Amino acid sequence: MLQLVNFELRKIWGKRSFIFITCLLLIINVFFMWYANLENDNKPSLSAYKIFQTKISKMSENEKMEYVNNLKKDIDGISFVIEILNMRNSEMGVFFTEQQINENPGVFETYYKIYESGNYLHFTHSFEQEKAFINEMYDEIVKVSNYNSYLENIKNNKSKLDGISIFSNQDENSYSSRSIEKSAKDYNSLNANGITFTPSKTIVSTTENIWTDVLLILITFLFIGNLISEEKEKKLFNITRSTKYGIEHSIIAKILALFVHCIVFSFIFFLINYLFFGISSGWCNLTIKLQSLAPYMESNFSINILEYLIISILTKGMLIFGISTILTAICIALDSIILPYMFGIFFLAISWLLYNLIPAVSSLNIIKYLNIFGILKTENLYGSYLNFNLFNYPIAQTLLAWFIIIIAIIIGTVLCYIFFLRGKSLEIRKSTKNFALKFHPHTSLLRHEFYKTIITNKGIIIILIFSVLICCNELKRTYTPSVQEQYYKNIMLKLEREQTDEKIKLIETEKARYSEAFSKIKEIDQCVDSGKINPITGDMMKIEWYRITAFYPTFERVLEQYNFVNEDNRNYIYDTGYLYLFGIMGNNEVLNDFILLTLGLIFVFSNIMSMENQNKAWNLFSATKKGKKEIIKSKVKTSIILTVAFCILPFICRFISVSKAFPINGLFLSTRDIPIYHNLFFGMPIIGLILLKLFLQVCTGLIISSIIFTFSGWRKSNIQTIFFGILILGIPVLLILLGFDFMKCFSLYPIYLYSFT
């Protein structure tokens, strides 16, 4: 039997097509993890968690608490300073400013200099991200530190219940009283000993990933297709059923092979998840208690994090095995190759809708949590605590979930055995309907190659998918100018273009205003030092002047342009939009576009040359004069057209999203008017530099396409082309994203990012 199981596994796992699709799904899984965790205005990058994890790795619990409390105190202080500065322009701003400062004495003075220096960013690149990250860590450590109180509260509820005299006011047989009794019993063996706070990002992201669950189901569907449908299509069951023990041993071996597949691939997928997030957001100690992770503090299981991961993955694998046995039974029973999978997809869709549409507090929440997607969320089974009310008795969600899993396995296995023994549908019914589109003859070779690339090879689907991803990645991004940037924007939009007397007067007025503010602050400090006024009064007097000097570092950018305009008779220009457009600022966003662009080109052109090898068409083309040469020329032209269009898209979307927040004016002014390009060795209109930048990005895309084009002709297999393309072009870029900057030397990204600075 073991040999037969091994044979069933090897004949599927050993197929090149299965290996390729498995690798492809694993890559897609990593891609979705990366894409879902892209940073935005209020969402920190994964590296922030890694830095924080490193900082606290050698701290005691008290030191961790003190460290996070100080971070929280500092970021709240900076937030207070920004709030005060934001109120300066309102009509009642002075009144509210003084009121806030009086209610929070000393806070503004303490944190203003820190805010001005920008030294408050420890983990991220912006105040919004820093605040969101620190608040997240603060909430987690406070929740974990109160674990003992959480357990005491459960015990107190039990004590209060016991203290009610003979249940005079409460029925001892009610669900609520039984639930309190059960909760106290379930938590009775737990205590706060060994609780060690650690950020939960890595573990939570590893297991709570719906895309991994879906891809795991898809690879299992593929396994079932090879296990049953393909053999039925080839009429192999007629042979195996005629051998000794052919029927019983064959179906048992297939079910056991399916079980091994589900468990092994569950561990493979989630191990890759853990490696990805471990590298990106930091490793944690897997031997500490599960309750050390704030999201799982309500768990009533006395297990460590490693045990939680193993149990969760096993649960997912067993559930998918139960679903798969039922799908396998349907495949055996029906003589259609498509219908069973339609049933499977429909069932999954219904399950997903039930989970997302039924509220958690609904009386039907048992349907929400005990369907496929509800059970796949193992964080609800082992990381939290939930009982269902069944006939006035509290029944644990975990118990019911495993009951459903076991029932599904039993039903599916029995049906597989019965249907296979009956053997009524051992072949796939061939359809006689022809859905092919009519062929319209034409004489354009370029048009024909274009058709083959985007229609025959499904290139249009890939282009649309990656175009949507690129557009969403750029257009959904919102740039929120800081208060300082808003000040710089307002003054530069007034100064734009050539120098005038009015503009000189505006600059001189601003300079005088700042000089007066610094002078007044200096005078107040001198009075405080000499004892003429007390420090508190001095701080109150400086508030008004601080509101002015807070923007002086930004005004220095204006002065830089002012001096340059006076020296070389240049033009003023608001340059922030150009800095974002050229990737000088926000270069991580350009990296995201480049990754999507690279993957899109790899998948689109992986089969552009090898498609002719699949039906041996090159033998026919080579027989004609210039036949092969002209076809290759047409393929090259097709790849150039598609690549140019594909490479222009992210730049256009980036231009639109940037210009919404930072006006991009003066397209026909000189490039040297932009401060960062003052010393550029050549002069041209800014629109020329934009076109040159776009041309450079298109050239990078053409290099990628030519590499894939070469691989496709060399390997004569789209599978191998995709493999080598991702290995040579994709992996280095993904490693750059993970923080390995030295990989830029092995990537085309520096060319794509180059901005002539």
Describe this structure in words.
There is one protein chain. This protein has 757 residues and is an all-alpha fold. It folds into four domains: 46-158, no CATH class; 198-422, no CATH class; 446-479 and 577-753, no CATH class; 497-572. It is 70% helix and 2% strand. The chain is built from 33 helices and four strands. It has helices spanning 2-13, 16-36, 46-56, 61-86, 93-103, 107-117, 127-145, 147-163, 175-186, 201-207, 210-233, 237-240, 246-281, 305-333, 339-357, 365-369, 372-376, 378-382, 397-422, 445-456, 459-475, 483-495, 501-530, 535-549, 552-568, 576-581, 587-605, 611-614, 617-621, 627-661, 686-715, 718-737, 749-753; strands at residues 387-390, 393-396, 497-498, 571-572. The strands form two sheets. It has a two-stranded antiparallel ribbon with strand order 1-2. A two-stranded antiparallel sheet has the order 3-4. Strand 1 (387-390) and strand 2 (393-396) form a beta hairpin. The radius of gyration is 33 Å and the shape is flat.
The end-to-end distance, rounded to whole angstroms, is 68 Å
Largest sheet: 2 strands, antiparallel
Global structural class: mainly alpha
Count the strands? 4
Neighbour order of strands in the largest sheet? 1-2
The outline comes out as flat
Number of DSSP helical runs: 33
- Uncertain runs are 430-439
Overall structural domain count: 4
What does the average pLDDT come to?
81
Q: What fraction strand?
A: under 5%
| Rg (CA only) | 33 Å
Percentage of residues in helical conformation: 55-70%
